[in-house]
Amino acid sequence: MMLQTRERFDVDSPFKRPSRPRGRRHRVAVIGAGLSGLICARTLADLDCEVTVFEKSRGVGGRMSTRRSESDLQFDHGAQYFTVRDERFRRHVDTWIEEGLVAPWEGRFVKLNRGYLEESNGETTRFVGVPGMTAVCRHLATDLDVRFGTTMAPPRHDGTAWIVEDAAGTSQGRYDWFVTSAPAPQSAYLLASVPHLEVKARRVSMSGCWSVMVAFKSPLDAGFDGAFVGVSPLSWIARNSSKPGRGEDFETWVLHASPEWSESAIEADHEEVVKELLDALWQVTGLQPVEPKHAAAHRWRHALPAEPLGDRFLFDPGLRVGACGDWCNGPRVEGAFLSGLALAGRLVCTMAAETPHARNCSTFASPGP
Ligand SMILES: Cc1cc2nc3c(=O)[nH]c(=O)nc-3n(C[C@H](O)[C@H](O)[C@H](O)COP(=O)(O)OP(=O)(O)OC[C@H]3O[C@@H](n4cnc5c(N)ncnc54)[C@H](O)[C@@H]3O)c2cc1C
């Protein structure tokens, strides 16, 4: 058994079998502190791996984060809510509900199209983080070693370990395993020394999304809390302050531009985007324009994958490298979660096959890619 594993490493990999001393914990570098990276890191850390997470921004959450303004207003400027289809995800969501991290958003949801309004509540339960979308990621990151403000360069292997450096060339250590959870184009870049995985990540294109965050002193008489918008620069409008646990003094709204509009204006000036999307808001709702107390725009350059890979994650056991994220098998919060969880399962199974260190392989009945 041992011999077979050794042979596989030598055949599949240009690298020699890594020489991790017996008994030492597996060291894993995870790039990205969004949901997929954090559930992967959390799972590995709970199974006694030594995990370090590198995140280029100043906080956790990635596209599921909450933005706080200088005047202390908060906006879910990326993911708006999430739904639950998969039983494995449901089990986690149930515990988050019990812990008060997540609650259903019981608003009125509609479709707005060419001046027509159609109800869109249906049977779907829409969950949100409380008091902001970041709550779940913040919870998962508890006690993890997360290095914020650290933009990573592509790791390289020296034959025994992954050499991990940030974009400034500062060493961030040596690791047995390397995982990227960045959006597909950024993961492709980070996988530069693993060409067969890089090429797969590069195949997934991701569209941009402009998000505008506005606050009004008096409530707008819109008559809904969330609206899917057609035939407009906008694709989504949400009364952010109608989500549970927000408790704002002002009424806050988040406006998302459609992928087409966002792509055509991807290099536009932030102020110009605010103006155009506010104009679109008044136009699609028929409301009288009101001057907001606060308005800001955020550009998501890699918001949503056009067509995910169709694999739950990418993995090379020989090179000890993996990639996860919503771009692998599902362009949503749930897809990101399941991707990171499944990759952690596969890593642990591979570690277990190598050493008796991690024995919980059967916990993760992951279908894998
Ligand atoms: C505008 C918008 C609206 C959305 N609405 C919904 C919705 O309503 N419902 C839903 O289910 N989903 C929605 N989504 C999708 C959802 O947000 C994502 O599917 C999910 O959050 C992706 O998680 P992830 O971990 O795969 O990636 P991310 O959250 O993107 O995490 C990747 C992390 O990697 C970091 N990173 C990248 N490169 C580097 C580097 N070189 N070094 C260090 N760190 C790096 C990034 O900063 C980021 O924090 C929306 C997304 C957007 C953008």
UniProtKB/TrEMBL annotation:
| Region forming the signal peptide | none
**Membrane spanning stretches:** none
Region: Disordered, residue numbers? 1-23
- Which residues lie in Basic and acidic residues bias regions? 1-15
Give the source's domain of life in one word.
Bacteria
Q: Which Gene3D superfamilies has this protein been placed in? A: 3.90.660.10, FAD/NAD(P)-binding domain
InterPro entries, sorted: FAD/NAD-bd_sf (IPR036188)
One Pfam family cited in the UniProt record for this chain: NAD_binding_8
Q: By what name is this protein known? A: Protoporphyrinogen oxidase
Species, as recorded: Maioricimonas rarisocia
